[in-house]
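ok trying this again, last paste got cut off
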Amino acid sequence: MPANVYECMFLLDTSKVAGDVAAVDKQLRTIFERNHAEVLVSRPWDERRLAYPIRHHKKGLYYLTYFSAEGKSLAGIENDCRLNEMILRQLILKIHPKMVDQMLAIAKGEHAVALHNIQDEPLDETAGVPVAPLEGEEPPPQRRSRTAKDKD
């Protein structure tokens, strides 16, 4: 039976990582190798403030990994991740076979790091696509958040 390709997004404890991404990569590769998985692409995604505290942490490093493995080895990978103190959370998704080449090409490219930093553009409410102003037309107004003064 051929191996499947999976995407795994880790949320790592920044205090344990302490800027040593090479050591992080080595630890994560050890988890995958122990469970008979082959790492295809692995890189840090972004370090950001969390929406809510996770295990009393307010910041985390997102780390993206694509790997190839048999389905039966996922349970071992998830167990090893739960035992690792550096990993706060992880999410493993199976990649559709038709999308594997495209996903790996994007993850390997230099532009991949910039993809998550794209500024939010105003969206067409009905279609969910960015609104582009027509020639000679002003761009749509930006939404503003309500302040305490507006709520009164």
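PB: full thing came through this time. The domain at 4-115 is CATH 3.30.70.60 (Alpha-Beta Plaits).
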